[in-house]
Amino acid sequence: MPSKVFSAAVVGLDAKIVEVETDVSYGLRFFNIVGLADQAVQESKERVEAAIKSIKFSPPHRQPIRVLVNLAPADLKKEGSLYDLPIALGFLLASKQTKFEPADKIFLGELALDGKLRPAKGVLSISLMAKEKGFKEIILPKINAFEAALVKDLKVVGLESLKEVTDYLEGKKKIASFEVKPEDLLENPNYQMDIGWIKGQEYAKRALEIAAAGSHNLMMEGPPGAGKTLLAKAIPTILPKLSFGESLEVTKIYSVSGLLPEDKPLINIRPFRSPHHTSSEVALIGGGNPPRPGEITLAHRGILFLDEFPEFHRDVLESLRQPIEEGNITISRARNFLTFPARFTLVAATNPCPCGFLNDPEKKCTCLPSQIAMYRRKLSGPLMDRMDLFINVPALKYEKLAAEDNEFSSEKIREKIEGARQIQKERFKEEKILTNSEMNIPQIKKYCKIDLKSQDLLRKYVNSGKLSARGYHRVLKVARTIADLDSSANILFEHLAEALMYRTKEEK
Ligand SMILES: Nc1ncnc2c1ncn2[C@@H]1O[C@H](COP(=O)(O)OP(=O)(O)OP(=O)(O)O)[C@@H](O)[C@H]1O
Ligand SMILES: [Mg+2]
Q1: Can you tell me which atom of ligand 1 is nearest the CA of 222?
Q2: pLDDT digit string (tens) for the chain, length 508 residues
Q3: Residues with CB under 5 A from ligand 2 (ion)
Q4: Are residues 349 and 228 in contact, defined by beta-carbon separation less than 8 angstroms?
């Protein structure tokens, strides 16, 4: 009788059940794995044989025995080494060397030659699926237990070796479910800087505050050394905390990408990604074979910072247009499509021209008009239309730069932002969105009502061509965030006027 144990395959960010069927019969020596298995799964045979031998069971090659392993469903691609443990257990069951009830358990883990278990990727996705599909237990490498235990009401058994697994399954060893303590989930980030260390630039700091509060896109322009990169690096210090639900979303992404730190398997700090301007399209938006999340997905619920913005390849920048609008990215794979979440706040920084001193009151710009035109081409058009806040970051005068430190102000700003986020959370509790930036047109209509005076102002901007239809909606969302920072139920004229001020780009 063939044996059947359960494991899982991660497709995109979600897991699917994989049935590992093993048939053992007497005949010419033979060990085969079928079911769209990649090279790493094929190599599993060698690891499984060595691991079984190490714990004194009889490995498949010992006797004249035929072993056929079928990974079902056959049309789902199986990748990686996580099937080692279920294949080993399937063989031990089918060859009657062990006995246990496999029906309500999910197994995963790579085996070392000495039978030790090595960690796998995508564990959170697998344990979420296990719970959803009604499995009772997940049995996996000990290092992965914390991550799996983020899912409640599922017994998580983290073990160190194949021997421990068989002892546990045969009832020779009792193991309690791994529990995550609530204090493990709290972490106060240790910031390396504070926004108060940045002198002057009050206007820019206010724009950062608004961007962080409502998750609005921000573009900074200024001469070299003005502090643009510094300002961007201060953003993590004012970002609101991730809720537990958001943490799980982000952790799933990092887990599947194999980027989860072993000592801290829950990401509870908003991501801040700063890819280099030589990054390829695949690195930025995701893809490859197997498809992996790109920087925009790794920045989900956090910040994607593109420094030296015009130096990025044009195609790479253009590919951001759709995900900025949709909050996700769809990647086509050989036979199907995969969607990764990508709801990030875009922060970009640029010089005004290649030499950096265009329109500078003190220094003369040395660029040719054609060079300036070339440079600015990437700063115009549809991508810029998706920016909510444009700010100039001017070079500082000595008096400001040498002024006393305003040491710690990140905490105060963060508190204000947390307040604004709380208001948004309340407002959108029935809407399946979290921030003002995510509002669709009906939601804008419902939540961004403005008075007659404000309507007149907006009419002027739109009718004179200074504001596109998209710009109009984006301004209303920013105004909503400014009102939230002010704890104001209504959007007042001053809120709208401030929001419009950050769209100066349109006036040029
Ligand atoms: N407002 C400021 N307060 C304190 N230090 C500053 C400020 N602005 C700039 N500096 C100093 O100048 C350095 C360079 O700033 P930064 O790298 O942010 O400039 P930038 O605007 O990104 O320039 P570039 O366009 O060349 O990339 C900082 O590391 C810091 O030492
Ligand atoms: Mg810089």
Answers
A1: 21
A2: 899 999 999 998 999 999 999 999 888 778 899 998 888 888 999 999 999 999 888 877 666 688 999 999 998 989 889 999 999 999 999 999 999 999 999 999 999 999 999 999 999 999 999 999 999 999 999 999 999 999 989 999 999 999 999 999 999 999 999 988 766 777 777 788 889 889 889 999 999 999 999 999 999 999 999 999 999 999 999 999 888 889 999 999 999 999 988 777 888 889 999 999 999 999 999 988 788 899 999 999 999 999 999 999 988 999 999 999 999 999 887 667 889 999 999 999 999 999 999 888 888 999 999 998 888 887 777 888 889 999 999 988 877 777 776 656 899 999 999 999 999 999 999 999 999 999 999 999 999 999 999 999 999 999 998 888 889 999 999 999 999 999 999 999 999 999 999 986 544 4
A3: 229
A4: yes
For 335-352, b/e burial (b = at least 16 CB within 10 A) is: eeebebbbbbbbbbbbbb
- Ligand 1 atom nearest the C-alpha of 308 is 27
Pocket test residue of 194, 198, 229, 363 for ligand 1, highest count of atoms within 8 A of CB: 229
Cα separation of 484 and 296, whole Å? 27
Q: Please report the atom of ligand 1 found closest to the CA of residue 226.
A: 21
- Ligand 2 centre to CA of 414 (Å) is 24
| Ligand that lies nearest to the alpha carbon of residue 393, given by its number in the listed order | 1
pTM: 0.91
**Å from CA of 210 to ligand 1 middle:** 21
User: Residue 405 CA: which ligand is closest?
Assistant: 1
Got the DSSP string for 298-360? Answer: HTTTSEEEETTGGGS-HHHHHTTHHHHHHSEEEEE-SSSEEEEE---EEEEEE-SSSSS-TT-
Ligand 1 pocket: which residues have CB below 6 Å? Answer: 198-201, 222, 224-230, 351, 396
